[in-house]
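ESCALATION

Customer reports they have been waiting on this structure for their group meeting. Please prioritize. Original submission:
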Amino acid sequence: MKRAFLILAVLILSPATMAELKMSSVFGDHMVIQQKQPVHIWGWTTAGQSVTVSFEGQTAEAKAGDDGRFAVMLKPVAAGGPYELSVKADETRTFKDVLVGEVWICSGQSNMAWPVSNSNDSDLEALAAKYPKIRLISVPQVGTQEPQKDFEGAWQECTPETVKTFSAVGYYFGRQLHQTLDVPVGLIDNAWGGSACEAWVRRDLLHKNPELYGPLLEKWTDLENTYDHEAAMEQYKKRLAKWQQTKKGNRPRPPRNQLAGQHRPANLYNGVLKPILGYTIRGTIWYQGESNAGRAYQYRDLFPLMISSWRDEWGQGDFPFYWVQLADYLNEKPEPAESTWAELREAQTMTHNLPNTGEAVIIDLGESHDIHPRNKQIVARRLARLALHNEYDIDIVHRSPIYRSMERVGSKVHVHFDEVGGGLDTFDVREPIGFAIAQADQKFVVAKAKIVDRNTMEVWAEGIQSPVAVRYAWADNPVCNVQNREGLPLTPFRTDDWPGLTVNVLK
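Update from on-call: job pushed to the front of the queue and completed.
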């Protein structure tokens, strides 16, 4: 009898009987698989277990490693569906209503997270959002130092109801692709409002550059060693109890656990990127930077580091990465001045040095009183222009005019631009607005300008006899109006490299 109980106990507790086939929620019913690329499928089961993945007439086999993880690569498939995808280990999972098309990550901070329900004409947009071949999935906000394998979420068809809470920029971008290409589109939203760029980067990568990131990491190490969230909550409860007795003043707010938030280095890499990292995609659209504006010079290195690290781990080479440059924001100033937001925009533009990248300039769409411009439709269209031209070989003007070079002509400066499309133009009034000019004393004054030819501007100012530098739209909220004939605004720029406000700010 004892022997029988022993055998039964062994059977009950053995790995084979206890094992469960697990996969990230990025794999599920209604998902979209990237077309025309090898498809990466992974999960976890019993160590040593054989796994077979079947999809559209093909099978791929693998064996789970010592940690139970397995991975296979399916051969590229053309756009279409719906299909079924089966994963067979010690149990079988079958995913239904699977489409094949274009898959894009929608990431960044609140301007990417901003939902359709809060964008322009949200009621009309939602009523028309009947696109069964656009699929949406969102990753919940989890900030942690522990790499996550999974998340709570599921793919959904795009409907007037499901679209309301989804990223507005993401949806409008995906809709443009779907309407233009006539293929299914899958959108994965993992944006988190207020997030700092360093939260999206592995911590060990930051440690490799102590000169640039040492002060930032030291600040967080000090906080990690001293912050006690439970103690902070106890203090909050005492303040709340006292307030409830008198109801005087504002109700106390509960403390935020900064260690579980969206600023701590690597928190979002581990919490909202890691569970989807490796899912076969076409590319990423990104809207972030506001939280790093005070450290704009650091962002010159940090943002490219983030992009390169994502690409390295994704294993898909230099997949396209397109971002939105910061919009105009805060109060307008009548005279030229230094600006952290202008410095951050410059850092974003400098990231063009990485291959297969692009920038949607929206210096004409911001609102001085609201950090979240509501016109997400045009933002998305400018991102879509980049993707449609670069990834899908559609011949359209896709980039904003961008500074190339300058030459001094007497007391004036000729500034030359690339990517001018049909030629330089102005919006609203004929006179180009938004330029400043300086001599060697580095004191900028408002400048006049005129269009000389399709890619050249002439800039000058009274009293400036020996100009050495020109700036355009160099302010938090600049008044500016230069664009190309297709309506894409001139990229803010400066011809000088004089130290700015954030040159030595590292934390």
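Sent to customer with the following note: Confidence is low (pLDDT under 50) at residues 1-18.
Escalation resolved.
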